[in-house]
Amino acid sequence: MIDFRYHLVSIVAVFLALAIGIVLGSTELQGPTYNLLNQTTAKLQNELDQASSQRDTAQQQANLGQNYAQAVQPVVLHNLLAGQRLLIITEPGAPASVVTAISNAATQDAGAAVTGQIALQSKFFDNSDTTLASLNQISLAMSQADGIVLTTGTPYQEQAAQVIAGEILTRASGSSTQGAGVQPSTSSSAGSQQDTNAATMLGAYANEGFLTISGQPSAPATLVVIVTPQTAPSDGSADPVDQLLVPVAEELAAKSSAAVVAGVSADSGPGSPIAVLRASSAASKVSTVDDADFVAGQSVVIQALAAQLNGANPGSYGFANGASAVAPSPAPTPSASASPTATASSPSKKPKK
Questions:
Q1: Residue 90's beta-bridge partner residues?
Q2: What is the pLDDT of residues 310-336, one digit of tens each?
């Protein structure tokens, strides 16, 4: 039977063992243990200092690169897009700083005019039955009113892009872009009618929350840049926005002289919008730039547009997987063969009566 004496002896034994451990730890084991810990700490601190130094050096080099790219950008881009009209389209979450920088580079350095911006909203990419029915209803009404024949059996977002592109994009007269022919000029009254139709169409989509507009995107543009936030689902699933970017970009490219999809470098890995596009058929129709958050990348966006205007094939530019080059080579120069004047109508529709 366990009695009080047994408990007392047990408690004494525990405290005795603890005391012996403390004594050993503070005497015989103190030297080797302390030295080992001290050496490990010193080693880790040295590695941290080296990593911090490398980080600071890389940041300094990046800043120098940014400053240099900013300094030479006006010379590199001088009049590359003279007389062209650029439309900017953004996906949900597209960085405003990238949009502003591309717009400034196009207007201040390359000689283009930015007609406006269309910001596609999350609702545009919503695949719920109710939302798709609403989107389809608008597209059908607008296409019938303006004589646009929609491609059947395609996603409703693609059909909406077909309507939008058909109204607000056109090819530059005499453009050397593959598939572009010299189109006859139209009267000013026809151009005015098209602007009115385009404004009505954009208003219909905007009123239902599918997009927002700024500037005057209803004026026909010859070039288009799509800015994507470059987000990829963390679970590896297919993002509807990424998947739908492909047909939307193809429709915009089909109606313009040149189209570029611009993303940021931080999230340009597998599953990102540009990665999905580069692995699709759209890669042969639309140029991509995966580092448009840097000045050099913003310059490449303009150069990619100019290269297509000069007859080059679309390219995949940047540093992420799927990029074939950092920038177009040789660097594009202002085209003397194509007139900057754009036609005011698209062959896919008739002026609204």
A1: 119, 227
A2: 999 999 999 887 889 999 988 888 755
